[in-house]
What we know:
By secondary structure, this protein is an alpha/beta fold. It has seven helices and five strands; from the N terminus they run ββαβααββαααα. The termini are far apart.
Amino acid sequence: xxxxxxxxxxxxxxxxxxxxxxxxxxxxxxxxxxxxxxxxxxxxxxxxxxxxxxxxxxxxxxxxxxxxxxxxxxxxxxxxxxxxxxxxxxxxxxxxxxxxxxxxxxxxxxxxxxxxxxxxxxxxxxxxxxxxxxxxxxxxxxxxxxxxxxxxxxxxxxxxxxxxxxxxxxxxxxxxxxxxxxxxxxxxxxxxxxxxxxxxxx
Length: 202
């Protein structure tokens, strides 16, 4: 069972992102304010949940949350800023769009840029420790997955409906065979060394 809050007397927003390690597509962040008494034994880091469980939890989170917001930063901005800054920018946008202003921010990970002087704490593996961060991880993951499914219909040779843009062997092989799309992150190493050698010989 996850912790319900860090400070019971403050309005806490949990923040997390999805897609940071992908080769294609945007990074997505979510900010969620859950009731202090909310509890669900199945809620956890989205990476530890089955797809069906994530979507069931997403429906519940959107119904139970006091406020939630999701934001995307596309691959063009990622290439300009770097992925860390783009991820934090997405978190800032998600916080900005909350209908309730948080008094404290819980951030998954170990790096953050202060947002409007609201106090915060970075928590490594926070998505497996606190309700609000876990809820944010579920929203960020499912919203990004949905977007990658939509992009797959535009570029169906890269398997984004399955790999969601992550650097799987099949994804890298598709890049070597078909080249890059407008959604690929040019600042990332899109091919590994072995595939680059094979690609050069073709």
